[in-house]
């Protein structure tokens, strides 16, 4: 279990991550769960990434309620 996360280190990794290394083509359905008001991963970044994905099926549902409040409602909607 993680007791504490260094958000600056996480942001640096996210900022510097090269998505080209994993590619954009998948043989399985591809799903990104995205918070509409996410301050760490902006919605536009997730939308732009999703546009590049080639998969049998892909989706980018936007959640309007913060993840911490989603719990069972999120699982039900998936």
Condensed summary:
The chain is of the alpha/beta class and 78 residues long. It has helices spanning 7-16, 43-52, 67-77, and strands at residues 30-31, 34-35, 58-59, 62-63.
Output the keywords.
78 residues; alpha/beta; two-stranded parallel sheet; flat
Topology:
Elements: H1 7-16, E1 30-31, E2 34-35, H2 43-52, E3 58-59, E4 62-63, H3 67-77
Parallel strand pairs: 1-3, 2-4
The profile of the biggest β sheet is: 2 strands, parallel
Shape: flat
Q: Give the averaged pLDDT, no decimals.
A: 77
Q: pLDDT under 50 segments (min length 5)?
A: none
Tally of contiguous helical segments: 3
> What is the radius of gyration?
14 Å
- The fraction of residues in strands falls at 5-15%
**SSE string, helix = H, strand = E?**
HEEHEEH
Strand order of the largest sheet: 1-3
Estimate the helix proportion, in percent: 25-40%
Give the end-to-end Cα distance, rounded to a whole number of Å.
25 Å
Number of strands: 4
- By secondary-structure content and strand pairing, the structural class works out as alpha/beta
């Amino acid at each position: 279990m993680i007791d504490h996360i260094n958000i600056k280190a996480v942001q640096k990794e996210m900022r510097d991550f090269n998505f080209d290394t994993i590619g954009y083509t998948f043989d399985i359905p591809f799903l990104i769960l995205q918070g509409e008001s996410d301050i760490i991963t902006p919605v536009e970044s997730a939308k732009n990434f999703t546009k590049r994905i080639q998969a049998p099926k892909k989706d980018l549902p936007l959640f309007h309620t913060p993840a911490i409040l989603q719990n069972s409602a999120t699982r039900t909607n998936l």
